[in-house]
From TrEMBL:
It catalyses: a 2-demethylmenaquinol + S-adenosyl-L-methionine = a menaquinol + S-adenosyl-L-homocysteine + H(+); a 2-methoxy-6-(all-trans-polyprenyl)benzene-1,4-diol + S-adenosyl-L-methionine = a 5-methoxy-2-methyl-3-(all-trans-polyprenyl)benzene-1,4-diol + S-adenosyl-L-homocysteine + H(+). Coiled coil: none annotated. The gene is ubiE. S-adenosyl-L-methionine binds at residues 142, 163, 190-191, 208. Methyltransferase required for the conversion of demethylmenaquinol (DMKH2) to menaquinol (MKH2) and the conversion of 2-polyprenyl-6-methoxy-1,4-benzoquinol (DDMQH2) to 2-polyprenyl-3-methyl-6-methoxy-1,4-benzoquinol (DMQH2). This is Ubiquinone/menaquinone biosynthesis C-methyltransferase UbiE. Residues 30-56 have a biased composition (Low complexity).
């Protein structure tokens, strides 16, 4: 194994109070500069007012961080196999993940027969993460990758677990705090803008099974390039296109029959898992995504197919 993937030797534990995250006891920040909380009270008041208004109007609408305002996406886009207004997609995706958040980890194990853990381990081994580094896990959900990165960067490093969906982020925060991860911040952020974060902030960016749900993927890749430090790397772990046609047909049969059935039985939500299967088919294939990364400025881009191309890990560098 190369030195890049070897684990650093452990260091003496630091006083937890010395490295406690400023976010651990505060509401989830949204749209504030990293490590700053001066506007959290105002944001909380605004969110409360908005939520009360929505409740009075009986509208199921979620408060989401602002997305990109670009011309990359037309007036309509896809939501699974459906065509929807581009401005509505984020809300529809939010409905899906608010619905599945509580059972998300259980369903991941069931749907992938536990193989998702091996996919994530492969991505982590490609990360080259080091002691003291700054890591951003975008659309990090329940925190599988962030938990490992928290250990690898050590007390002098910092990991930010970000997600656009508050339900998912709350599950991740509870899980990591219970695991004693005191060097992790939790930030509501839209991948299209990554507005809370300054330019050249992170040594490593990861996004695991989240990019396919982003409306404006080009804007998201540009935002990732912006916040990554020169010399840093981006890893995208995402469902992709099987490279063997007979295998692809079996995979389709499984995805559109077994997944919704498991969703109905375990999470009482077949429609969300039908969307998840459809969203995989609408995601760019391996070569297309590689080209999108290069267009955003990333260099030395490559990808590695896993499980016959069901999943691929894309890698790019900001040089």
């Amino acid at each position: 194994m190369s030195q890049e993937n070897q684990k650093p030797s452990p260091t003496a534990p630091a006083n937890p109070q010395d490295n406690a995250s400023p976010f651990l006891t505060e509401p989830l920040p949204q749209g504030t500069a990293q490590g700053q909380q001066q506007s959290l009270q105002a944001q909380t008041a605004q969110q409360s007012t908005a939520q009360n208004t929505q409740h009075a109007q009986n509208i199921a609408k979620y408060n989401l961080p602002r997305g990109a305002q670009t011309n990359n996406v037309g007036e309509t886009t896809h939501f699974g196999y459906k065509t929807v207004n581009s401005e509505e997609k984020a809300q529809k995706v939010a409905e899906v993940f608010h619905s599945v958040a509580a059972k998300y980890d259980v369903m991941n194990d069931l749907m992938s027969f536990g193989i998702h853990r091996l996919w994530k381990r492969f991505a982590i081994n490609m990360s080259g993460v080091r002691r003291g580094q700054q890591v951003l896990d975008i659309a990090g959900g329940t925190g599988d990758l962030a938990k490992v990165f928290s250990r690898e960067v050590g007390p002098q490093g910092r990991v930010v677990l970000s997600d656009i969906n508050e339900s998912m982020l709350n599950v991740g925060r509870d899980r990591l705090l219970n695991a004693g991860c005191s060097n992790v911040d939790f930030v509501l952020a839209n991948a299209e803008t990554l507005e809370p974060f300054a330019d050249n902030s992170f040594d490593l960016l990861t996004i695991s099974f989240g990019l396919r749900n982003v409306t404006d993927k080009d804007a998201a890749l540009e935002a990732m390039y912006r916040v990554l430090k020169p010399g840093g790397r981006l890893l995208i772990l995402e469902f992709s296109k099987p490279i063997f046609e007979p295998f692809a047909k079996l995979y389709d049969l499984y995805s559109f029959t077994a997944l919704p059935l498991m969703g109905k039985i375990v999470a009482n939500d077949a429609e969300s898992y039908k969307y998840l299967a459809e969203s995989i088919r609408m995601h760019p294939d391996q070569n297309t995504l590689k080209g999108m990364m290069e267009s955003a400025g990333f260099q030395n881009c490559d990808y590695h197919n896993l499980t016959g191309g069901i999943v691929a890990v894309h890698r790019g560098f900001k040089l």
